[in-house]
Each structure stands twice: as C-alpha cells, then as structure tokens.
What does this fold into?
Amino acid sequence: MISTKGRYALLVMIDLAQYSSGEYIALKDISARQEISVKYLEQVISLLNRAGFLQSMRGNNGGYRLAKRPSDITAGDILRAAEGSLAPVAGLDSEPLMGDRDPSYVTHDFWVGYDKVINEYVDSISLQQLVDHARVLAGNDFVI
It folds into this structure.
C-alpha cells in the first residue's frame, strides 16, 4: 500500500512541474495549492531532494524546482524515493528465499510476477504524463 507520503510526493512533483517557470517555488505556495501542511511537505521534500529530483535555494526568493525534466522522471522513481521498495511482500528485494523451507516458497513466483507488473506500470508513467493528465482534468473543471 502506498502511504500518504508517497501520494503527497507525487502531488508535490506534479505541482512543481505544473508551475515551473524556471524560478524557485516556495513551499508555502505548494502547501496552499495542495492543501498540505508545510510541516509535512518538509518531510516529503527532503526525500525528493535527497533522491536528486529537486534543486533548492534559501532566502527570500528561495524554494524548490525540478532538477530534471518531467519527462525524465517516472512515477516509480518518485514513489521509490518516498516509500523505498514497492515490493508487495518482504524478501523480493533482498536475499533469495530459503527454498522449500520458506513458507512463501510456493507463492514466490506469484509475488515476483506481481512485483514485476507493479514496477513496469509505475515506471511506464512519466511525471510529464501526470502533468498533462492534470491539465486535462483542470480544463474539464466546470463551475456553474
């Protein structure tokens, strides 16, 4: 299951890509648009920054901007930065299972296939595609 941190990481990256003008974007602006507390965003931003997705600058005109083009970042990259492994069960990303003594041995191939499908999907969606989809949704937002 993807945590709130992972969901917010995607939202933050979409926001930064949508509002990118080359300038740094203040965390308070992202917070206001996404209705997420600055305190919580600081945690998410830290993970994204550590993963190399962001550039930051301190000061009055400081904030954050993308370090890479949105087309060069996948949803999988972002989720792994926030969540760590996306493996559905423990042991898929680490040492090989213990063979037939391991209780999950008979279902191992199922979990490997499941993990492959998840990773192929999240790695097939770029941040640019998410931004484009957000723009389409925003264009269909009719208020009467």
About this structure: The mean pLDDT is 89. Helices lie at 4-18, 27-34, 38-50, 75-83, 108-124, 127-139. The chain has six helices and two strands.
